[in-house]
Amino acid sequence: MQPESPSDHFRQAVAFDASGRHDDAINELALGTQARDPHCTRLLGLRLLTGDRSPLLPQEGLRFLGEAAESGLPEAAARAAGVLALGVHIPPDHGLAVMWLARSAELGWEPAQRQLRALCDDAALAASPVGRPADWQRIAAGIQPENWKEAVPLEVLSEGPRIVRVPGLLPPALCGFFISLAPGRLERALVYDPVNRREIVAAHRSNTLATFNVDTIELGHVLLQARMAAACGVGERQMEAPSVLHYAPGEEIRDHYDFVDPKSTPDYAGEIARNGQRVVTFLAYLNDDYDGGTTDFPDLGIRNRGRTGDGLFFVNALPDMSPDLRTMHAGTPTSRGEKWIITQFVRSRKTR
């Protein structure tokens, strides 16, 4: 069943949000929910589940997301899965997240179906045919979230600064799933202009990216964050929103730093106090069918070209949280083919 287009209640709620009238937006979404607009029900559920410009009412939020999923928006159940796995103002629950993702798959959401197969630890089970909706629960039972928190093999490329390769960080099927989410969401990557205090297009960065915030994050992103946290020894709640980066032939990002830079950050001390230093950068390579496109550390003589599913992380800050200038790096242009990676920044304090 395909739901009708969003109602006037939904459009009015969007307009209220745009003008900063968030309480009025919530009231309009509630009216739309009462009028059985699943688009209003979905957005209201997500807002209540995360406390986004609304009261934090997780159980009510889940109920509304479930109603939206049953009313023709199965993607709403996948949104519940991502938030439950992430743990926004509530403890994360990966097991419950898997159940909600399976519910989305049962209701016909094809991205949820592909994600379940990509996350399933049993290859034969993941490839098995589905004859009825309940079969997705069988495939979901092959997902073991706790396995993503286990230690993984590391190859140290440098001790000072610490740069580490992580072979086989994630399975190829999940790499393909992450790539499939990006088309339609890619935007030109921007850089911060400290003079005008805004993000701008800059000549030294020509690639595009898609960032997955709390309203778009998937269970797979969160499980990958858990594996990254285990590899680099930080807490999962120190992760920023993950981004998928795309480099078309010739696109690049030239020499740059990832730490919060005191030279280009207004109120640097306040930013560090509020949000912490960006202490680690973690890359996950999603494909390798291209030429060029290496990750280079010119001052260290290190050049890395990841294989599909490999990871690489490096520590951007010194023990006192000051920037480590040795970590200058670049994403070189591809000479053939397109390059896809996930970039995950890690802060020195919790982000959620």
Mind summarizing the main beta sheet? 8 strands, antiparallel
Q: Could you give the order of strands across the largest sheet?
A: 1-2-13-9-16-7-6-3
**Which percent range fits the helix content?**
25-40%
Overall 3D geometry? globular
* Integer average pLDDT: 94
Tell me how many strands there are: 16
Q: Give the count of helical stretches.
A: 12
> What percent of residues are in strands?
15-25%
- Compressed to H and E, one letter per element, the order equals HHHHHHHHHEEHEEEEHEEHEEEEEEEE
Distance between the termini: 36 Å
Radius of gyration: 21 Å
Low-confidence runs: 192-198
Class derived from helix and strand content: alpha+beta
Task: Please explain how this structure is put together.
This protein is of the alpha+beta class and 352 residues long. Helices cover 36% and strands 19% of the residues. It has 12 helices and 16 strands. It has helices at residues 8-18, 22-34, 38-50, 58-70, 75-86, 94-106, 110-119, 123-126, 135-140, 172-181, 219-232, 268-275, and strands at residues 155-159, 162-166, 187-188, 191-193, 198-200, 208-211, 243-247, 253-256, 278-285, 291-292, 295-297, 302-304, 311-315, 329-331, 334-336, 339-347. The strands form 4 sheets. The protein has an 8-stranded antiparallel β-sheet, with helices on one face. A 4-stranded antiparallel β-sheet has the order 8-14-11-12, with no helix packed on it. Strand 4 (191-193) and strand 5 form a beta hairpin. Helix 3 runs antiparallel to helix 4 (58-70) and helix 4 packs antiparallel against helix 5 (75-86). The longest helix has 14 residues, at 219-232. Residues 192-198 have low confidence and may be disordered.
